[in-house]
From TrEMBL:
Subcellular location as annotated: Cytoplasm
Catalytic activity: 7-aminomethyl-7-carbaguanosine(34) in tRNA + S-adenosyl-L-methionine = epoxyqueuosine(34) in tRNA + adenine + L-methionine + 2 H(+)
Enzyme Commission designation: 2.4.99.17
Protein name, per record: S-adenosylmethionine:tRNA ribosyltransferase-isomerase
InterPro entries, per the entry: QueA, QueA_dom1, QueA_dom2, QueA_sf
Assigned protein family: Belongs to the QueA family.
Gene: queA
Function: Transfers and isomerizes the ribose moiety from AdoMet to the 7-aminomethyl group of 7-deazaguanine (preQ1-tRNA) to give epoxyqueuosine (oQ-tRNA).
Annotated metabolic or biological route of this protein: tRNA modification; tRNA-queuosine biosynthesis
C-alpha cells in the first residue's frame, strides 16, 4: 500500500477550530457493515446501539503539556512534555532556533524555573526539571491543542478538550481522545438507562499522534510508543458481552489500539495487560476485540485514517469521507463523528 492511497481533498473551511456549544450536538455519519453510509445526529447513537452492548472509553486526562521559556542565551524555547519518567524528569519535544545539546540550561515560565537537557531518547529530549513537573505544568503550561487549530489554547479548551469522565489521577496525555468529547453526562445516563454498559481502558496519547507518516510504503512505517492499560474488570465485561451476542464498541482509535494491543500481547486472546504499545493497525489487520468504532474524521494520509480503513475498507472510508465533505461535516478533533461497523465477512471475503 502506498501513502497516497489514503489521501483525500478537504476544504480548509471544514476544519473545526472550536467546539460546538453542546458536546452531543454534533452530527454522526454511520458507515454500516455493508459499506453504506447514513446521516444522523450524534444523539441518534442511542438508537444505533443495542441493549447489552459495551462501550469502551479511554479515561486518560490531557496535561497542560506545552511550556514556553528561554535558553541561557535569552532565545525563546518551547517544551512539549511527552512523557513523565519521574516527578522531575520527562521525555520532551523541544522547539528552538538551534537544537540544544546535553547539559544545556533552559528556563521555564515567568519565574524562569531552571531545567537541564540531559540528552536524547530516540527523537525526544530527556529534560530534568529543578522542581516537580506537574505543578509547573499546572502553573505555566498550556493545553497542547492540535496544530491544525492554528491558534493558542483558550479558556474554552480547558473544559472542552477534556472528556467528562477523565480520571484526574491519569494526567499524562498530550492530546485528547477526541471521539469521547461528544459524550456529556446526560448522554452517559441515557446509555445506562437503555442497558448499554460503558467501561474504561487507559491510553496516554503522545504527540506522535500529530506527526505525519514520512514513508511512501505504508507497511514500513514505525509507530510511536504509547503506554496503555486494559484492566481485568473491563476484560470480564467484554467477555460477558461477547458471550451473550452483544458487540464491543470502541470509542476512539486510542481505545481500539489499547484493546487490540492487549489481545495481540496474548496471542489474540483478550486478557488484562499494561505496557507500551506500538501497534500499527492498517488494512489487512485482523481485529480480535472491536466490532464497532465511534470516531472522528481523520487527517489525510494519517495512521488513524489507516486504522478506520482496516475496520471497514479503504474504498468505503474514502467514499464516506467524500460524502462528508459534500455534506459539509465538521472535521478533526472538535468536529463531527462517525460510527463505523466492522466490514461484514461476505464483503471482506
Amino acid at each position: 500500500m502506498q501513502l497516497s492511497d489514503f489521501s483525500y481533498d478537504l476544504p480548509e473551511a471544514l476544519i473545526a477550530h472550536y467546539p460546538l456549544a453542546e458536546r452531543s450536538a454534533s452530527r454522526l455519519l454511520h458507515l454500516d457493515q455493508d459499506g453504506q453510509y447514513h446521516d444522523h445526529q450524534f444523539t441518534d447513537i442511542l438508537d444505533l446501539l443495542n441493549e447489552g452492548d459495551v462501550l469502551i472509553l479511554n479515561d486518560t486526562k490531557v496535561m497542560k503539556a506545552r511550556l514556553k521559556g528561554k535558553r541561557a542565551s535569552g532565545g525563546a524555547i518551547e517544551v512539549l512534555v511527552e512523557r513523565l519518567t519521574s516527578d522531575r524528569t520527562a521525555f520532551c519535544h523541544i522547539k528552538a532556533s538551534n537544537t540544544p545539546k546535553a547539559g544545556a540550561k533552559i528556563f521555564i515560565g515567568e519565574d524562569a524555573i531552571p531545567a537541564t537537557v540531559q540528552g536524547r531518547h530516540e527523537n525526544l529530549f530527556i529534560v530534568e526539571f529543578s522542581q516537580p513537573i506537574l505543578p509547573i505544568l499546572e502553573q505555566y503550561g498550556q493545553l497542547p491543542i492540535p496544530p491544525y487549530f492554528n491558534r493558542e489554547a483558550e479558556e474554552i479548551d480547558r473544559e472542552r478538550y477534556q472528556t467528562v469522565f477523565h480520571d484526574p489521577d491519569k494526567l499524562a496525555s498530550v492530546a485528547a481522545p477526541t471521539a469521547s468529547l461528544h459524550f456529556d453526562e446526560a448522554m452517559l445516563e441515557k446509555l445506562k438507562a437503555k442497558g448499554i454498559e460503558y467501561h474504561f481502558v487507559t491510553l496516554h496519547v503522545g504527540a506522535g499522534t500529530f506527526l505525519p507518516v514520512r514513508v511512501e510504503k505504508v507497511e514500513t512505517h514505525v509507530m510511536h510508543a504509547e503506554w496503555c492499560e486494559v484492566p481485568e474488570q473491563t476484560v470480564e465485561k467484554i467477555r460477558a458481552a461477547k458471550a451473550r451476542g452483544n458487540q464491543v464498541v470502541a470509542v476512539g482509535t486510542t481505545a481500539t489500539r489499547a484493546l487490540e494491543s492487549a489481545a495481540s500481547a496474548h496471542g489474540g486472546e483478550l486478557k488484562a495487560w499494561s505496557g507500551d504499545t506500538q501497534i500499527f493497525i492498517y488494512p489487512g489487520f485482523a481485529f480480535k476485540v472491536v466490532d464497532r468504532l465511534i470516531t472522528n474524521f481523520h487527517l489525510p494520509e494519517s495512521t488513524l485514517l489507516m486504522l478506520v480503513s482496516a475496520l471497514s475498507s479503504r474504498e468505503h472510508i474514502l467514499s464516506a469521507y467524500a460524502h462528508a465533505v459534500a455534506e459539509k461535516y465538521r472535521f478533526f478533533s472538535y468536529g463531527d463523528a462517525m460510527l463505523i461497523d466492522k466490514l461484514s465477512a461476505i464483503k471482506s471475503a
